[in-house]
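Protocol step 4 of 5: obtain the predicted structure for the target chain.
Materials: sequence only (see below). No template structures provided, no constraints applied. The aim of this step is simply to have a reference model before the mutagenesis design in step 5. Sequence pasted as it appears in the construct record:
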Amino acid sequence: MKNLAILQKTLQYQFKDEAHLQLALTHRSAAQKHNERLEFLGDAILNLTIGRALFTQFPECNEGELSRMRATLVREQTLAQLAHAFQLGEFMRLGPGELKSGGFRRDSILADALEAVIGAISLDSDLNTATEIIQCWYTKLLTEIQPGENQKDPKTRLQEYLQSKHVAVPTYQVISTHGKAHCQTFRIQCDVPHFGKTVIAEGTSRRKAEQAAASEILDYLLRQQQNVRS
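Step 4 output (structure tokens):
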């Protein structure tokens, strides 16, 4: 594993016990003791922190608008963007298979690892410190975020797109799960029969897997629509 002092400087947090950070960067493909429990903790802290920040920042917004903005800020894509900026993948500990397949660049792995880092910071210090670090990371994103249609999650946007075309809404089916109860991976199949499109996606929760599948189908349909126009 590379010199973690470099990463800690980038994260703007110095660990008292570096073992916390090492665990946060350990993918389950690399060791029996891995980062998924820390990911669970970090996910909860992240949602609380961003929810509170939005509640304060947008006193006139209703629950639905706040929820959509929070979903945008804590989704896999946003977390992965932050992780890439921190070059988190360069410090990940991955098994041979994940290394060979480029797992250190995969958004899902990086997003989960960043949540694990948040969990690790909270254990190494306290909840208030973890909250302050998250707010520091999200300064620019919180400044730019605004309520509106773009903040709707992929499942909602896909359903509304299909309804606007007067076709049947998508169906989601769990086709497999693996892992222990507290750290499962869900494999979801999403079907849009009218367009003959099927996508399979994975996530560490059923919700994340469904959102990933919906996002992929929506991107495909919008590209097709753009191609027809051009």
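Step 4 remarks: The beta strands are 171-178, 185-192, 197-203. The chain has a mean pLDDT of 90.
Proceed to step 5.
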